[in-house]
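=== Structure Prediction Worksheet ===
Name of assembly: unnamed complex
Input type: mixed (protein and possibly other molecules)
Chain count: two
Listed entries:
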Amino acid sequence: MIVVLGSRHDSVAVNLVGRWPSAALCSAEDLTRPGWAWAVSASGGRGSWVVDGSVVPDEEVTGVFVRRGTVHAEELTSTHPDDRAYLAAEAHAFLVHVLASTRAVVANPVDDGGALGEAALRPEHWMAAAEAAGIAVAPLRVRSTGGDRPPEAAIEVELVGADVLGAAPPTFMDAARTVGGWLGLQWAVLTFDDVGRLSAITTTPAPTPDAAARLGELLSSARAA
Amino acid sequence: MILVWGSPADPPVAAVLDALDDLSADVELLDDATVPALAYDLVVGPRPSGWLELGDRQVDLDEITAVYLRPGEQPRSGTPTSAALLAVLGSLPATVVNRPAAGRSNLAKPFQLAALAAAGLAIPDTLVTTDPGAARDFLARHRRIVYKSISGVRSVVASINAGDPAGVERLDRLGHGPVQLQQWIDGTDVRVHVVGDRWFATSITAEATDYRYASDGTAPPELAPCDLPDDLGRRLVDVSHGMGLLVSGVDLRRTADESWCCFEINPSPGFTYYEGHTGQPIAGAIAALLTGPVIGAAAPRTARTWWSDDAAPPVPRTGVP
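=== Predicted Assembly ===
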């Protein structure tokens, strides 16, 4: 089973569930339903999920696609309004633990600070990794009078596992693969500016049809031992 | 120049400012209250550059040799500035206490706890669950357990005994959200403040399950400096540094057989509570760290789970040269 972590109001998440065989949506509401149980240990946990209302042992989950950076209080409609903010923080923290513990392939895994989704792709984070990997990065200027417009994207490529999709010279493909490896990314869109510097990494867009097909294969392949 | 960001009314910030003043250090305060109206022009990147205006002084990032970060929550108007500042200050080639990314694991306690176990520290048996049956089984196994928050939101730690029907019944009401349950560890609480390569251990004797909230008819907790085995102290320094933390507050419990159980590492400890009771010179040690040799940024943190199919649990990175 592929678990898509997202919202019913996110058309990208819903479309991916429809596209991939044996995929199901794990919503914020699922995080507040009975059936989750995860131990804490240095060797990873064995646990159970709640996906689309049903309890699923971790052994049955082959891959997880993360379409959220946090759990929002407004999503917890079955919870008393006074408790939603607290419960959202708790559910988010729990989700971090589950994603770090599951033996399934996760796109993308939490970083080792515990950030997930787009929150794990803060510029200061990926820029440092790219620099360490020897890849030129476009600086990002921020001012109290307003930020600069981001540079126009000259080249955009899509990373899926070890594959890079898109029309780009091999140097860009290699750079995307390298920085993706540094950051442990299974899927992302990488943008280079007109002088060849890496200017953005994001997981916000919908995967292209070709990338979605490859992601489906990646996430339904054999689990980690 | 040393930049201190926080509220001067916050005791740890005030204590660090006082200690830096004692050392006649060149210090600028970035007061929380001024953040929404702050003027700045910064470049985010591997080598941050630019300036920010503190009072009537325009401070170039190149001037900053050390940073003490303890910002409070910002109003909505200050959020973009706060985010930009944290990104830039957290990446400076300076001594930063502490870089924001290093402390984020504390916002997901079970995640941090697994990291502590991977680093070789003993942790309590812990279950995070929404399942009443699993919770009952966990209580039956340990006979006494505590429940506590999973996130960084503070909650009072409370305990449940297997022989207490009301407590057991409380577990049946699980199922509306995840709860963190831990086996009860009998012993004495010890808070260890790691500051650079030094550590300060404080024992806390209290009647209450959670000594931080001991005012409900129980005697106030008694705090006293205590010894820590050298190998444990060095390990806590290594673990803190491995997480990228130059200063931390480690919560431990010492059992009757002299074993040690670790509960969490706080990346922004309110150390003045302990300093006030014991006289341990924690603020002075932090000031010495900030005025000492520059400790640069850790290697970039790559994303991964703490355990993977092809690797043993990792040894924490040594982020501090």
